[in-house]
Amino acid sequence: MQVSKKLVNSVPGSADDALAGLVACNPDIQLLQGHRVALRSDLENIRGRVALLSGGGSGHEPAHAGYIGKGMLTGVVAGAVFTSPAVGSILAAIRAVTQAGSAGTLLIVKNYTGDRLNFGLALEQARAEGADVQMVVVGDDSAFTTQKKAGRRGLCGTVLIHKVAGALSEAGASLEEIVRRVTAAAGAMGTLGVSLSPCSVPGSGPTFQLAQDELELGLGIHGEAGVRRMKMVPADEIVKTMLDHMSSPSNASRVALEPGASVVLVLNNLGGLSFLELGVVAGAAVRCLEDRGVRIARALVGAFMTALEMAGVSLTLLLADDELVGLIDAKTTAVAWPNLARVPVTGRSRVLAAPEEGPTVEEPVPAGAPASPQVRLILERVCSTLLGLQEELNELDRAAGDGDCGSTHARAARAIQEWLNSSPLPTRPSQLLSTLARLLLEKMGGSSGALYGLFLTAAAQPLQSRSNPAAWAAAVEAGIEAMQRYGGAAPGDRTMLDSLCAAAVELRALQAPGANLLPVLAKAVQSAEAAAESTKNMEAGAGRASYISSARLELPDPGAVAAAAILRAVLEGLQSQSA
């Protein structure tokens, strides 16, 4: 078995170190000496209020210690990774809050056998000592369609119970009232998870295996099996499957998602999902729920109860009236609770209309400007050249970047092709370059889009009043100067500037009276191609490649190759029309 890599000091000490690290960074939390227990630093402020204790195995961070604070938990008791905490530590935590003058103690426990047993035993021992203690067991799992003898597993919905109970305690509610209210809330809640990969306990290998094209629906937060495995499908379909399962009338643990229902939605990252993917899932969940006529009163998106590094997400739905939403909105100092907007998600405008562009002023076309059909043919040749180079440029970029240079240029080419097919070309060269600049800034993306946008925007200026070969040479110089000023690169830094600057040197010959455009441009293209090839012998001084050891850069810079290829396409386009 291959043991997974973990950033820990030791496997046995990982839970203690993690809790100590949280406490070290948060002055509002303190450790209970001799125990894996974290408590509010201001225990004196719970006098006369109900104390709230929770906990369970480590590995679910930020649960549970991240929810300690005014308006949420008074303290937590942590076990080793995926292991129930010790009875002695639970009892010590109860004693600590009782001695601080709490008006009773509520234990909020996820429905797992070990947690129920250990917290239950500590409760009985504390009661024998005269403490007023009660326990609420949270089971919000909506995976299993028939009731299991062990009941529903406790999942991310437990965090909402922490919040509701905390708000009630802070408002001065009695222990009995808090138990009644949170029990009702827990009964109106469901959670379902889906995973793309397993997790691994420190010192061990993965808890289960999934094929590359599979996902698991309904698994637990310790890697326990779910209800079924599915083939990978788009996020929208996954979310629909999850919500259908959670709300199916044949599901004994269903959430009653009737049209008009109001819910608090939690999108919970199980630990290893990228936040890009989490955003995609969040949007899908909002659309799917609103399409069913469900009103989303509040939406929480983030990592609330994880399963170590599991790449997955869980959806929690809490049916909530205005009073319950008010408890969710109540203030808390807990560091892991999000800064939640206290307004409904459903029913608000999500798009601001873009500002209108100012009116364009038609100016006379300068003498010598190329005709639109000629420009169209040149642009089409540039696009086909870049599309043909996509894989080659990506391969060159993998040595020193993120391997997307060809894809970025291909995206620009497709955007230009779409524009050519849908819009008439501006007749003025300056307007043509300015329009291309805006198009690439919007569609190309990345630093390449910004650099080409800079080049074209600056190059448009010398072409406003004239469009002869000398003006085009000046345009190239202006574009290069803008790229150097804002991009920070220079010739010799192994960038597209190496090709462009080499070409610009040759294009200066166009300043001479009677200069012949095509021979000068042909020489400029040859210099650009030679400069691009020479970049493989350069040490990068700018861009992502500057962070890579020069020993790894044995191929030409993809940006320089692309720039030279564009110049070659322009030359060939002009030659084909003069033949």
Automatic annotation (TrEMBL):
Its cofactor is Mn(2+); Mg(2+); Co(2+). Its EC number is 2.7.1.28, 2.7.1.29, 4.6.1.15. Keywords: ATP-binding, Cobalt, FAD, Flavoprotein, Kinase, Lyase, Magnesium, Manganese, Metal-binding, Multifunctional enzyme, Nucleotide-binding, Phosphoprotein, Transferase. It catalyses: FAD = riboflavin cyclic-4',5'-phosphate + AMP + H(+); D-glyceraldehyde + ATP = D-glyceraldehyde 3-phosphate + ADP + H(+); dihydroxyacetone + ATP = dihydroxyacetone phosphate + ADP + H(+). The keyword Metal-binding applies. GO terms for biological process: carbohydrate phosphorylation; fructose catabolic process to hydroxyacetone phosphate and glyceraldehyde-3-phosphate; glycerol catabolic process; negative regulation of MDA-5 signaling pathway. Substrate binds at G57, S58, G59, H60, K110, D115. Catalyzes both the phosphorylation of dihydroxyacetone and of glyceraldehyde, and the splitting of ribonucleoside diphosphate-X compounds among which FAD is the best substrate. Represses IFIH1-mediated cellular antiviral response. Homodimer. Interacts with IFIH1 (via the CARD domains), the interaction is inhibited by viral infection. This is Triokinase/FMN cyclase. It comes from Chelonoidis abingdonii (Abingdon island giant tortoise). The lineage of its organism: Eukaryota, Metazoa, Chordata, Craniata, Vertebrata. The gene is TKFC.
